[in-house]
Structures are given as C-alpha cells and as structure tokens.
C-alpha cells in the first residue's frame, strides 16, 4: 500500500552552482488517522494506523530513503528508472538517520525552478512510500489504541509541497486522487499526489484505479450482482405464479367441459326412459314374476332368461348369447288355451313331435349368435 507523509525542510542553503541543499525530518512514528476509503475500507469512517519505531527505523527502511528522487509535488505515478528524468528535481543523500520520532534525510534540489519555489515558501517535504498494512487492533506502548499497523516501509520519492499556514497541524486526508493514503496538510495540493494504480475488470473492460477505487468498484459489482439475483428470483416467482394460474384455469375449463358432457338433452333422456320402459315391459311378458328393481338393463335380460330356461341354460355363456336368448323369448307369444281352442280346436301331438320341436328350439338358440334363424 502506498503512503505519503509530510514534514518541513530545515537548514536550507545554496551552493555556488545554485543547488539547494537541505535536511528533512519525515516519516514519523506513532498513530495517524485515515479515512476508511484511503486504506481500502470504504465501509469504515476512520482508521487509526500505527507506525511502530521498529518498522520506521529498521535498517531496510532507513536505507530505502537514501538516493531517492526529489519531486515537485507528488507525481501521479511512482518514480522509476523510466520516468525519473521527467519527474525528479533533485535527490536525497546517502546518510539517513533517526532524529527523535522522525527520520533526518539530507537532500539536494538541482532544478532552478524548484529552487525558486522553495525560496518562495514552498518548504514542506512529503515522503511517498509503500508499506504492508495489517488490519489488527492493539495498543501502543504509550497506551493509544490503533486499528492497523504499517510494516515493511520502503521509500519511493520525496515531494516538495506547500507549507501549511497552520503549521504542522495534520488533518484527515480525503484520498480522492492521492498516490498514497497518509495524512495530508492544510494546503497540500490534492491534484499533485502520486497514485498507486492497479488493474481491475469492470463489465469485461480493464480499468486502472487505486486500491480505494478498486474496493469501491468491488462493492458496486457485488451490489449489482445482489440486485440481479433479486430480479431473477422475482422473475422466477412471477413465472411460477402465472403457471399456477394457467393450471387453475385449465382445470376449471376441463371441469366445465366434463360437466357439459354429462348433461343429457331432453330427447336423449326421453329415449333412455322409453328404452328402459320397453325393456321392463318385455321382461315382464317373458317372466311376469321377476324382480327388476335396482337391476341394470343387462341384469334384467339375464334374469328373464334364467326365469324361463334356468341357470344352467346360460352358464358360462357370453353377454351376446344372453341378449339373443332374451330377444328370442320376447318374440314367442305366451300360451293362451282359450285362444288356441277358438282358432282351431284342441290338437294333440305325440311325444316325439314335442321333443323334436324342443330340440329345434335348442339348436336355434345355439346358433343365434351367428344370425341364423331355424324354422321350428
């Protein structure tokens, strides 16, 4: 993570060649206050960052501030071997030492324009550096609470910035376009700080932004995904509700059609009633004593045949055979002795003739299903 830190320029003097030689006290120990966005925690209002002495004054940390570029304000990018000629106006010396709770850093400003600015009152130095920021709570040896700790501090450059009218009073930096996330001072120019950029993907496009910007983008993308998920759930629920309504309508239509199919019109009902009456009348003529209450049409025909010919006559017979036997019986007129006497008198036949007639009737019954009619 990249930081800046400000301090005044001390002991300024000019060389015979017009260079400005000075010393800076920068990168102090202790606690500094940052906004959450400056340290990649946009959900937090402020963060107390602790810079321990052991980290600030470690051999590697002190050595990293030797022979680094001096710039006029913080550049928008880190100073490297590829851009230092365009960005540097001087450099630091080789002997960086501890001075109380700060570093003492010797430097030389060689650019004439930058020298004039320092002489005109632009007399603060701000260190641009990187470090590892660990979010862990604790308390300093002096009893101050903190939320995060800086470790592995490594310098990149020293920037000449304007002196604040209120002196060295620090305020919380907004970090909007900051290269780093250390405190800034009252009139330190926001547009001049170097930005540590990283690449992130936004809707398939690669974008360069700061750590704070990346955190904000990540939050927005997560919010977008959550909203899209809610919309998808709403669409699924809506489709399910429509499908349920369609099923209810289809069921209602089916029930209506079924009810219509069961409704018998008047003529069909008359035909059914007449057919039933004709069947009952025929059955009573064939077998006057049969009980027909509660019987179906087929059961009535069967009962009539059994009453006349007995159960054995239709045992194991098909429904078609029984129907044919019933039709045959309903065609035979019932015996009427008085009527027969009036027609031609009483005639007698021998037993052989009667048996022959009975045999012919049985034969005709057996062949009834073939549609043949045998003469008796």
Automatic annotation (TrEMBL):
The keyword Coiled coil applies. Keywords: Coiled coil. Residues 217-262 form a coiled coil. InterPro entries: UCP029215. The keyword Coiled coil applies. This is DUF2213 domain-containing protein. It holds the Pfam family DUF2213.
């Amino acid at each position: 993570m990249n930081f800046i830190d400000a301090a005044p320029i001390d002991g300024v003097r000019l060389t015979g060649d017009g260079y400005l030689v000075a010393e800076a006290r920068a990168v102090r120990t202790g606690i500094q206050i940052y906004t959450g966005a400056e340290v990649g925690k946009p959900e937090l209002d402020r963060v107390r960052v602790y810079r321990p002495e052991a980290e600030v004054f470690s051999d590697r940390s002190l050595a990293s501030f030797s022979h680094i570029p001096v710039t006029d304000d913080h550049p928008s990018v880190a100073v490297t071997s590829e851009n230092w000629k365009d960005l540097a106006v001087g450099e630091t010396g080789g002997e960086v030492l501890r001075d109380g709770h700060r570093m003492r850093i010797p430097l030389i400003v060689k650019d004439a324009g930058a020298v004039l600015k320092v002489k005109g009152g632009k007399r603060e130095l701000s260190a641009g550096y990187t470090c590892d920021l660990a979010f862990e709570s604790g308390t300093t040896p002096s009893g101050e609470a903190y939320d995060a700790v800086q470790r592995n501090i490594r310098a990149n450059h020293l920037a000449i910035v304007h002196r604040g009218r209120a002196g060295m009073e620090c305020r919380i930096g907004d970090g909007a376009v900051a290269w780093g996330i250390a405190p800034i001072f009252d009139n330190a120019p926001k547009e001049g700080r170097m930005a540590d950029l990283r690449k992130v993907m936004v809707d398939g496009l690669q974008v360069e932004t700061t750590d704070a910007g990346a955190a904000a983008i990540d939050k927005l993308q997560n919010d977008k995904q959550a909203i899209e998920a809610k919309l998808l759930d709403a669409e699924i629920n809506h489709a399910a509700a429509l499908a349920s309504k369609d099923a209810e309508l289809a069921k209602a239509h089916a029930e209506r059609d079924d009810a219509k199919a069961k409704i018998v019109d008047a003529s069909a009902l008359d035909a059914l009633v007449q057919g039933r009456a004709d069947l009952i009348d025929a059955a009573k003529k064939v077998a006057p004593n049969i009980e027909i209450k509660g019987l179906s049409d087929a059961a009535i025909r069967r009962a009539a045949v059994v009453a006349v010919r007995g159960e054995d006559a239709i045992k194991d017979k098909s429904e078609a055979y029984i129907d044919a036997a019933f039709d045959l019986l309903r065609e035979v007129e019932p015996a009427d002795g008085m009527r027969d006497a009036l027609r031609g008198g009483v005639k007698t036949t021998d037993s052989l003739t009667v048996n022959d007639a009975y045999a012919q009737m049985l034969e005709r019954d057996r062949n009834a299903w073939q549609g043949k009619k045998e003469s008796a």
